[in-house]
Amino acid sequence: MIPEGLDAGEIRERYPHVHVKATSAENLTSVRHYNLWLTSPDFYSMWPDFEWILISQLDAVLVCDPWEVLPDEDPSWDVLGAPWNPPVRVVTIGHRILVRSPSGQDRGPGWVGVVGRQLHVGNGGLSLRRRAAFQAAATALESKTPRATRQHTNEDVLWAAFGPQHGVAIAASSLAGGVFWETVDPGNVTPEKVPVAAGYHGIDRWPAATREHVLHQMNHAPSDPVRNDQQQ
Fold first, then answer.
1. Peptide bond preceding 113: is omega within 30 degrees of 0, i.e. cis?
2. Domain 39-219 is found in CATH 3.90.1200
3. pTM of the entire predicted model
């Protein structure tokens, strides 16, 4: 996914089998615009032929196809992302929200971190989403949630807080943690602390030795094709 106007020649040359899609540059100019886009049905309607969307931002890596490590049965969930540990805490009033997160990207007062509802799953920067469920839920979310709330709240937190009200089932933390992983202490993560997973988020903030450890895993992972029964 690239902004309109960006020359995609180098991307197409390096990844000839990858389909490159362009969107309005505004959607990618800031976190606020991205939050609006990912909580709008416009984003999910771009992929009508796909059952699942895999979002992998530039600070994430995939070691293997996540479907290879997931159970074979049909998923009962609609979204799976790296768990937040410790969890994000929120207080919701109607469709307004106060947030306290381990990363410090907060909108709420300190007491929210004490009494707020815990959100365990999960980070949107590396996540699997069932397209139809999100497209339907985004229509409701967009109509009910104030624009300022959607702009100033990280889209993954907004989905974790309000998604279930609109039919989005969230994967259990025990399952999600075995698929995608990130840490709230990236500067001190060592190779020994990194569990085996299909993908890792936020590795740009890891020490170089730990990044190299993960990239070594990726370069030596089996390159099995995506399961035929899952469109991604």
1. no
2. no
3. 0.88
